[in-house]
Amino acid sequence: MRAALLAAPGRIDLADAPRPEPGAGEVRIRLEGCGVCASNLEPWAGLEWMTYPGEPGGLGHEGWGTIDALGEGVTGLAIGDRVAALSYRSFAEYDLARADMVAKLPAALDGQPFPGEPLGCAFNIFRRSDVRAGQTVAIIGIGFLGAVLTRLCSAAGARVIAISRRPESLELARHYGAAETIAMDDHWRIIEQVKTLTGEALCDRVIEAVGKQWPLDLAGELVAFGGRLVIAGYHQDGPRQVSMQMWNWKGIDVANAHERDPAVQMRGLREAIDWVADGRLDPAPLYSHRYPLEGLGEALDATRDKPEGFVKALVMLR
């Protein structure tokens, strides 16, 4: 099979790799595509603790496709089933997944890309956020996750204030139901604007979806007394400092919304499938850029640099 591998920081090589064979309890998926995740960017830039080159297909964990082989003991799945998978080497033509970590895609999704991992992640973040009707929710960072969360929170009856750098991101937030949008340019101006919009009360929930120090600082400032700060951004580039004095004084709850329990991850994936299949969520506007497998390096650069109109890159294999 053809597979992309991270040969060195900033360099993707295409390799001919053996097609993997499923072991007991596994399925093999003939991949249609795989989403590109912002968590790929630090390995792409170079991390001291990483070993290069990586595995064929490595970094790819947002794949979908069709089962073409079953391992021993697999039940409830069949060759030809179209699925989304939680697997880890999907920048390749084939990948293996545990049978309990794939979910069937219904006929309503035929022909549509479905990067299940990030969609499921958004639903799990939403559940951890405990958003309720009538609350005010600030979402900091309107990329893929922020946009989906805007839809989920607004559908729950919350008033969403979307905060992001790019005008097109704020327009996207309005498309998904944001009641208010604020340009992310000046720390103190944003705080004052949120105070004005909320009558000084600030926000019942604040979801930080960037993964950088400043958005985290801003998020703490925007949480109301007794509110909840939800950390959805992936903070992988070093330690963070937080104002514990402020957090203590406000008496806020802080939720790390990254799930590692496989059963919870699959719950989010199944919820995402249901919402997209029945039309409650249309993620199509979020798939802004598509690349062939040999264009993975360009896809990673675009994910980092965010050219105009960029939201999410998909690597298409079929």
TrEMBL record:
Domain Enoyl reductase (ER) residues, every copy: 7-315
The organism's place on the tree of life at top rank: Bacteria
Key word Metal-binding present: yes
Pfam families: ADH_N (PF08240), ADH_zinc_N (PF00107)
Transmembrane segments: none
Gene Ontology MF terms in the entry: oxidoreductase activity, acting on the CH-OH group of donors, NAD or NADP as acceptor; zinc ion binding
UniProt KW keywords: Metal-binding, Oxidoreductase, Zinc
Alphabetized Gene3D superfamilies for the sequence: Medium-chain alcohol dehydrogenases, catalytic domain, NAD(P)-binding Rossmann-like Domain
Cofactor: Zn(2+)
PANTHER family xref list: L-THREONINE 3-DEHYDROGENASE
UniProt similarity note: Belongs to the zinc-containing alcohol dehydrogenase family.
The protein's name in its UniProt record: Oxidoreductase
Lineage of the species this protein comes from: Bacteria, Pseudomonadati, Pseudomonadota, Alphaproteobacteria, Sphingomonadales
